[in-house]
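Thread: Modeling a multi-component assembly for a lab meeting

Hi all, long-time lurker, first post. My supervisor asked me to bring a structural picture of a complex we are working on to next week's group meeting, and I have zero experience with this. I have the sequence lines for every component (553 residues in total). Could someone generate the structure of the whole assembly? Inputs are pasted exactly as I received them:
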Amino acid sequence: MSLQQMIPLMGKGVLETLYMTLLSTALAYVIGIPMGVVLVVTEPDGVAPLKGVHDTLGVIINVFRSIPFIILLFLMLPVTKALVGTQIGSIAIIPPLTASAAPYIARMVESSLKEVDGGVIEAAKSMGASPWQIVTKVLLPEARPSLLIGAAIVMTTVLGYTAMAGMTGGGGLGAIAANYGYYRWQMGVMLVATALLVLITQVIQEAWMKAANAIDKRKR
Amino acid sequence: MSIIELKNMGKTFSTASGAVTALEDINLSIEEGEIFGIIGLSGAGKSTLVRCINYLEVPTSGAVFFREQNLGTLSDRDLRKARSKMGMIFQQFNLLSQRNVLKNVTFPLELTGTPREEAEKKALALLKVVGLEERAKAYPAQLSGGQKQRVAIARALANDPKVILCDEATSALDPKTTKQILDLLKKINREMGVTVIVITHEMKVIEAICDRVAIIDASHIAECGAVSEVFSAPKTAIGKRLILGEDKGYQQVSLPSGKKLRLVFDGNHNDPIIAVMAKQLGVLVNIVFANLTEVEGRTIGQMIIELPDDETQYETVINFLKARQVRYEEVRE
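Re: Modeling a multi-component assembly
Sure thing. I ran the full set together rather than chain by chain. Output:
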């Protein structure tokens, strides 16, 4: 493949990869944050203990997390069709990616929120804070640096899963690497696509960690 | 008028290994405007007690009254409202690490829906009271322990509380900083009329600022009264242990059979007690034993004196010791 062909191909791949990663992650966070918050507040020693809700949600999350992504992709085909109107292309991988990442995010959010010092929550309660105020004014703001670190991990994981987009006839660097490298033995294309994936992962991870550190007021 | 009243209050925790009684049959009434101390060894139940006062822990029996309101009968909403009138400070300060000093102090005002400008104005005024107005933009991680506790005090004062609960508030601080924080609490009590409740395991904290003290031991109030009375003549075993120390080194020596008193000094007395007794009262006492001992982390001196076998002279000495606030107990074989 000539360089003239390679550049637009890779450019398109990068854009598609970023599109799938960022959109799925963003949608998954919309679902995952409330789930993580509910997990933490409904715990037996949480600010609004509700054992039934806590245990049910826990089971649902575990079920979704234990289904392999490739299987989820196929199982969700009817849902995907209903949601985005098609079962093929890059857009068709967004629903399964979101469904797969949301419970993962719920667990990440749960672990970040649990790091918040119990004494600070107690102090807020002693000042008359309601459970809702504790969530919005204490738990989420205090956990912000840790939540951001979690987001970097989630995004790089989702980025890896976008490689499966080839399965639905979608694009992105992963699909390019598989289609050109695996099926057509064009090793050069495969290596370039893979190198670009590595590069994107590096950039996201580093930039995000820097941002998390920069906003953490615990650092002097 | 008592501002807080605990009536037959008890708290039992159910744990995996069965029920654990943290508090039992607690009766206390705390007067408006006083500084009330609660002292006990660790595990005595004092932290649970202070949390029952603002219902962070819900008592399992009895009742808690705050300004004649039974906290157990309030709705969640009214309980939160009542809590906002009780400030609380902690051993570990518990400041919000991601908010600066000013925003920490405005936090309780945000909870009650105070407009931002008004809240910030008030917070700055309170930071002035605690002497930290220049650090308004700093974050907790940039402050020393004493400064953090000052911020916590300003925060506890934000909603004009009637009471401030101090849970081992000086236990993480060095002696010099402890004194500054205690002075500040005393100033707030005197100038703003805020009732202060101090939970501590340190005698010096009670001595420094409290008007009255309750000694808590094994889930019960062992004794309660004015600090001067309880400290000069503790009645219970735990009171004696906390105040007079438990070193019985003198039991190794043979003591004369006459009337004997054990005097305890911890560096608060500068006048020569024995010499003054001899000179002013004309009572000649015999020192039969003396040593230094360490109790709960502080050094105290003890001395056993033998008194003349004369009832009137004995009374005179007792009255003299009481007036001088010297701690003593009778020694019997």
